[in-house]
C-alpha cells in the first residue's frame, strides 16, 4: 500500500517523533499510542508520547503507559508528529495549533473526520480500530511484534469493538486478535483489567448517572447524563465515565444511546452509540462533531438541560426526515 510506504519512508528518514491522540483518550487511543511508541523504539527512534488528558485508570496496567507525558517538550527538536485515532484536529486539544506547525504531520485513523489535516493521512474507516492499522504498519516494517506491542494492540481492538460486539468487527479483526493471543496476550486477564478493575467511586458515579436514565421516541432513544456535581460528590473524574453510554445502548429496543458529560463549567461532551442501522456519525455532524457510523460524538457549550433538549429535538428532526440510518 503506497500510503504505508510513505509513512515508512518518513519514519526511516527521521529520528525524534511526537506521538499524540485525542483528548479523553480511550482504549484504542492509548493502545495505539503505546504500540506505535514501541515500534519506533525498536527501530532506534526516539518517540515522545503526549496526551492532554490523563490516561483512564483501567489502562494503567499497559506496558509503556508510564512513558506518556502531559507536558509538551521543546517542539523545535521534533522531526515529525504522528496523530493517532483523531479525525478532527480540534480533538487533539489545546496544543493542536502548536503541534500542527510540526512538519510533517502524519495522521493514522479510522474516522472520517470533518476537517482534513496532516501532510500524510492514512484513513481507513473499514478498520475496527486504529490498533489494526498500527498492526499492519508493524508488519510492513518487518519488525517482529513483541508482547508489549501485542497487548496494546489487543486492548486497542478489544475496546473499540466493544469486546468484539460491534458491527465493525471483521474476520480480519478476529485474526489480528488471535495472533496477539498467540504472542502471549491472556484474554481473560486483559478483560478483567479493563472491565473488572474499577474503583468503588466509579460505581457510585455510574449509579448516579443511571439515575438520570430516560428513554424517548417510543423507547428507541436512551439518554443519561453526568454532571460536575456528580463527579465532585463521588471524587471521580470524567475519565471514569468512559463506556457509560453503553448502558442505555443495552436496553431492548434502544437504537440510539447518548450520554451528556459535563467536562468543565459550561462545557459538555456528548457521546452517541447506535445499532440497527442508525447513523450516529451523521447526527453528530449536525453539532459539529463526527465519528463512526455506530459511535460518534460532539462537544457543546451551555447548560446541560439546553443541550439535552437541542439533542432530542435534532434526533426528532432526524427521524422525521427519515435520514439515512433512521
Question: Please, could you describe this protein's structure?
Answer:
The chain is an alpha/beta fold. It is 38% helix and 18% strand. The strands form two sheets. A six-stranded mixed sheet has the order 6-7-8-9-11-10, sandwiched between helices. A five-stranded parallel sheet has the order 2-1-3-4-5. Strand 6 (214-216) and strand 7 form a beta hairpin. The two termini are 36 Å apart.
Offer a few descriptive terms.
6-stranded mixed beta sheet, single chain, 5-stranded parallel beta sheet, alpha/beta
Low-confidence stretches: 322-326
Biggest sheet descriptor: 6 strands, mixed
Order of helices and strands: HEHEEHEEHHHHHEEHHEEHEEH
Approximate shape: globular
Computed CA radius of gyration, to the nearest angstrom: 19 Å
Oligomer: single chain
Main sheet strand line-up: 6-7-8-9-11-10
Helical fraction: 25-40%
Q: Approximately how much beta-strand content do the residues carry?
A: 15-25%
First CA to last CA: what distance?
Answer: 36 Å
Structural class: alpha/beta
Q: Count the beta strands.
A: 11
Q: So how many helices?
A: 12
Would you spell out the secondary-structure blueprint of this structure?
Elements: H1 2-13, E1 16-20, H2 27-42, E2 46-50, E3 80-84, H3 96-99, E4 105-109, E5 120-123, H4 130-141, H5 147-160, H6 171-182, H7 187-195, H8 200-210, E6 214-216, E7 221-226, H9 228-234, H10 246-249, E8 256-264, E9 267-274, H11 280-285, E10 290-291, E11 295-301, H12 304-320
Parallel strand pairs: 1-2, 1-3, 3-4, 4-5, 7-8
Antiparallel strand pairs: 6-7, 8-9, 9-11, 10-11
Helix pairs in contact: 2-4, 2-5, 4-5, 5-6, 8-9
